[in-house]
Amino acid sequence: MAEHQAEPAHAKINLYLHVTSRRGDGYHLLDSLVVFAGVADLVSAAPADDLSLSITGPMGFGLAAGPDNLAWRAAGMLAQEAGIPARARLRLEKHLPLASGIGGGSADAAATLRALARLWALSIGTDDLARLALRLGADVPVCLRGQPARMQGIGEILRPAPKLAPAWMVLVNPGTEVSTPDVFKARAASGASFSPAPDLPAGWDDADAMAHALRGLSNDLEMPAIALCPAIDVVLAAIAGTPACLLARMSGSGATCFGLYASAGQAEAAATTLRRPGWWVWHGPMLG
Ligand code: C5P
């Protein structure tokens, strides 16, 4: 058995998210450009005689460390797939806000799969691991890959992203958890129409051009999420009002929103003005 393994679980950001249709089973078909930000949870796995999970970190409070935790479920499913007992001491250092549209739970599950595949020296193929990831959640496959991607289907179709321009981000969460199923349900109940999958260029050379293209697209979950959590609108307006902000948008089903900037200094300056009691604010690079 390999020694102690550690894997970062980076925040997932949807630069745009179009809901293109709805399947018979109620799941929505999406088209989204997914990137990752420099902020991450950390999952580590060490040899042990049984399976355990402990949670630390500034955002760990209130997150159950039992069998319902997505990291625990990922471990159980991977062991079952491999036909071996689930034996590992998992530690999750939580830095990302919970239920916040940046895929924290999904990224933790993906990082757990990566760490345990190494710890248990499994020879499971990429496609099999991706199929297993999808059973854990629609965002887990893209988090498993950990690279910018054009995501379609319910999250299982991953194509290369256009070449991204260097950019910096501010992430702001108003401290309210938002339920993903509730947001999708609210959108379906509102009778909102579907959006097409846009044509994207092969890439963008600078952040201005990238933001210009993204401004013509949307996050179709923004309206229903704001209806459930009006603080999102306040966050979006605050981000949009920062100097040099190229784009202000919600990620995933919210409530975390991001601002896009052409330089690290601009993002840092924006983050400084966005701090409020109860708001989680992060600034740093968009990972290419
Ligand atoms: O797969 P995940 O657990 O992230 O999804 C949570 C819920 O969000 C699903 O049960 C479904 O109600 C909704 N959802 C959806 N279409 C997607 C992804 C999620 O309707 N593509």
How would you characterize this protein structure?
With 288 residues, this protein is α+β, with helices and mostly antiparallel strands. The chain has 2 domains: 5-160, 2-Layer Sandwich (Ribosomal Protein S5, domain 2), CATH 3.30.230; 168-287, 2-Layer Sandwich (Alpha-Beta Plaits). 33% of the residues lie in helices and 28% in strands. The chain is built from 9 helices and 10 strands. Strands 1, 2, 3, 4, 5, 6, 7, 8, 9 and 10 form a 10-stranded mixed sheet that branches. Helix 1 (70-82) packs parallel to helix 2 (104-119), helix 1 packs across helix 3 and helix 5 (180-190) packs across helix 7. The two termini are 33 Å apart. The model has no long low-confidence stretch (mean pLDDT 96). Bound molecules: cytidine-5'-monophosphate. Residues 27-28, 30, 137-139, 154-155, 180-181, 184 line the site of cytidine-5'-monophosphate.
Jot down its keywords.
28% strand; 9 helices; 288 residues; Alpha-Beta Plaits; globular; 33% helix; binds cytidine-5'-monophosphate; 10-stranded mixed beta sheet; Ribosomal Protein S5, domain 2; 2 domains
Distance between the termini: 33 Å
Low-confidence stretches: none
* Mean residue pLDDT: 96
Structural class: alpha+beta
Give a list of the ligands.
Answer: cytidine-5'-monophosphate
- Radius of gyration from the alpha-carbon trace, in angstroms: 19 Å
Q: State the CATH architecture of the largest domain.
A: 2-Layer Sandwich
The CATH class name of the largest domain reads Alpha Beta
